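User: structure tokens for MFS transporter, please.
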Amino acid sequence: MISRPSPSGVFPTVPAQASPADADPVPADNARQRRFIARLTFMISGGMFIDGFILGAVGILMPGITADLKLSTSWEGLIGASALIGILIGGPMGGLLADRIGRKPMFTIDLAIFLLGSLAQYFVVTPGQLFAVRLVMGIAIGADYAVGWPMLAEFAPAKIRGLLMSVQEIGWYAGYLAAYALAWALTVHFTVDWHFILALSAVPTLIVLLMRFGTPESPRWLMSVGRIDEAEALALEYMHEEERRDLRSTNPGGALSFRHLFAPRYRRATVFTSVFWVCNVTPYFAIGTFAPVVLHKLGLGDGMAGGLALNGIALLGVLACTALVDRWGRRRLGIPPFFISAAALVLVAVPGLPSLFVALAATAFFFFNAVSTALCSLYPTEVFPTEIRGAGVGFATATSRIGAAAGTFLLPIAMERLGTPPTMLIAAAICVAGGIVSHLLAPETKGLALGEASAPAARPPA
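Assistant: Done. Predicted tokens:
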């Protein structure tokens, strides 16, 4: 067992004359710990890739699905939003279970359910069946957000936690872009049936699921439920020395319920993470899901090719945030992009603007929106402590998907009834609201140990 920390928080050293029996076990070498962190990061970002994959193909395939299943505008919006509605359910449910029964069991159960849903898409013949299957898939992936992100944050070294968590968003955008490109190629050049294209999500899901077997439980979760010996043994094997010391900050009181998210200690974190995430993803999902339609209405020619290019720009934005987050900090990368994105959408809404300026403004929106969105996987895991981290991430996930699902459902209706310029102005207003709330509530957690970042969850921003 690892020695108890001294009052100063530093582990006492073993005297030189101590016998081997009296000394602490030798911790795993740094190379092994680095390999474990790299593998864990890949496995969790694989879940994000799958989420992006199932959402990225829908916009391209929607015309074919609409013609085949004879969809109304309402059904079109519902199917586009079905996975997002599922995430709304699965995030809180998965987070609560992850806090109560552990990260490890849920880490494989959710992807197994998702795999079955992926295969079931091949056999749907009615709008209701497609909606139901993708709803279940969304529930599974929502649970994965609330399980995987806390698990990675609880193992990650403080000095690279921002990078590791931002990589999750790279996984999402990579999956979205891969599915978008694949669906475009198979639809335009090979006329492959949309059932088969949707079912292709089973391939990356099976790969990631098999990799996840054998993943250890989170030592911080074990500590939070009083299983101290197990926590210390796993920490010695998989965590760096600084994180092993910080492990002692975990409260061994067990999991909390959702009502505690609005207790004074956690209220600020709950409001901030929810609003931050909602205002980032609502405009993106609304515009990104129907990018071909939006770009065509803006007079930019081949909407499918343009949508593919813009989502590639978004991936570059995430890469920029990943490279800078542990150097510049969270606030500098999380707040200004909201206002830049809003300005870009206002330009898009200007009637009669030359196509070149519209294209540049759309490019700016996708890039800077992605910079800020990359922090959506980081902030919730940092500001909520272990005993409520899964529930906090799950709740923030759910609220974000309310906005994303609403935006995806309402965008085609708004463009039909209000027109493109007013719809873009509404999206710009959402970005401004996100920037204001983030300026008031966002903390700076760069370089802090996870216990330090989450303990004063209600402190004012630096």
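User: Anything notable?

Assistant: Residues 30-454 form a domain with the Growth Hormone; Chain: A; fold (CATH 1.20.1250.20).
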